[in-house]
Amino acid sequence: MDTTKSDQLYEKALQLMPGGVNSPVRAFHSVGRSPLIMKKASGCRIIDEDDNEYIDYVGSWGPLILGHSHPEVVQAICECAQEGTSFGATCSKEIEMAELICDAFPSIEKVRMVNSGTEATMSAIRLARAFTGRNKIIKFEGCYHGHADAFLIKAGSGMLTAGSQLSPGVPSAITGETILCRYNDLESVEEAFRQSGADIAAIIVEPVAGNMGLIPGTREFLVGLRELCNNYGCLLIFDEVITGFRLCYGGVQNITGIVPDLTTLGKIIGGGLPVGAYGGKKEIMDLVAPQGEVYQAGTLSGNPLAMAAGLATLKILRDTDWYDRMEVISYFLTGKIRSLFEARGMYYVIKRLGSMFCVFFTEDEVYDYESAMKCDTQKYARFYREVLQEGIYLPPAQFEVSFVSCAHELEDIYQTVAAIERALDRMK
Ligand SMILES: *Cc1c(COP(=O)(O)O)cnc(C)c1O
């Protein structure tokens, strides 16, 4: 595989951009090779600057559920661009988007569009704090909610002590208000409430975690969180930035029936353009300016191009049976990968839910951050590089989820399986 052009461009990028990238995971650090620079993509295929073609299971980290450059999405963007790219005033597409989101999520009565998932979660906790008049929030180890200060926290010496900062530049005064609990461990949350229940404004959680590999929240865990929030008068925030419209038309809350007070969205609802949203009960959302006093704004929020791409995407998902097809395709793919590992006596855990899946190299069950961290990341790095050689583009990091899109056909899956088989044979 020749990556001369990618390598040259990356050298140049390193001089001009921190780490040569605009988001850290793109630097491929954890898979031990220099990053690819991508040129174009269509359907489930992505092509780098050296014209190597890959079957893509990253899908821009989740947004591209219809595949790259879906014709209807592209058409919607083009038509929209010809009529103006931004007004700085409300356009009808924003209202249509709000209506689609409110229809799809029973828990969302009103919604505010923003420009990224980070903005959505940051704004949601501000709102939760304002609504409850409390400052502390609970987040879970291994869940990712974007890069706002409050979330950049890691475990201190003991769990449940206020965590320490994950990043320089984050004031300890801010992370001191974040309590870190263990995912799928209700006991750790109960303990936090026993200690600080009266000060906790909200629990924020990925109901299906997609940022420590794929780890679904257990029913018992999610129900327990809802009950604790009810008992202590704090808000439950489901961060469905990945899972919104990924597993069904709606979110994990539609599947489980567990109703959060606030929901954050992003990724798929922008159809590949930059978008985020947060929404929930009217009485809470009405605190947001200009109706209420919780300030939150955005020059490009509800941008027409992003709304056009998102609307086109959501309507296709709403009016077709793609979720069923993706279920079959990803079930088939992960089943085949399992067989390849089994045949070679490899230890592994494959987690899959709908079109999301993740391969861990470990002997033990994976159910939270700590158990995920036990897996062999060196082995994943090797697996990643070998599979890449064979034209398969997986996430260049162990703790990220792979996505099947509507554009992955059975033929692509056969090709993927054959490629993985060749890669594994080289790994011996
Ligand atoms: C990606 C992601 C975010 C952050 O979204 P950005 O658009 O990257 O800022 C927040 N929460 C979850 C669960 C995510 O996966």
UniProtKB/TrEMBL annotation:
Any one annotated GO CC term: cytoplasm
Catalysed reactions, semicolon-separated: (S)-4-amino-5-oxopentanoate = 5-aminolevulinate
Keyword Disulfide bond among record annotations: no
Subcellular location: Cytoplasm
Parts forming coiled coils: none
Metabolic or biological pathway, per its Swiss-Prot or TrEMBL entry: Porphyrin-containing compound metabolism; protoporphyrin-IX biosynthesis; 5-aminolevulinate from L-glutamyl-tRNA(Glu): step 2/2
SUPFAM superfamilies xref list: PLP-dependent transferases
Residue numbers carrying N6-(pyridoxal phosphate)lysine: K267
Record keywords: Aminotransferase, Cytoplasm, Isomerase, Porphyrin biosynthesis, Pyridoxal phosphate, Transferase
Subunit structure: Homodimer.
UniProt family annotation: Belongs to the class-III pyridoxal-phosphate-dependent aminotransferase family. HemL subfamily.
Record-given protein name: Glutamate-1-semialdehyde 2,1-aminomutase
Organism: Syntrophomonas zehnderi OL-4
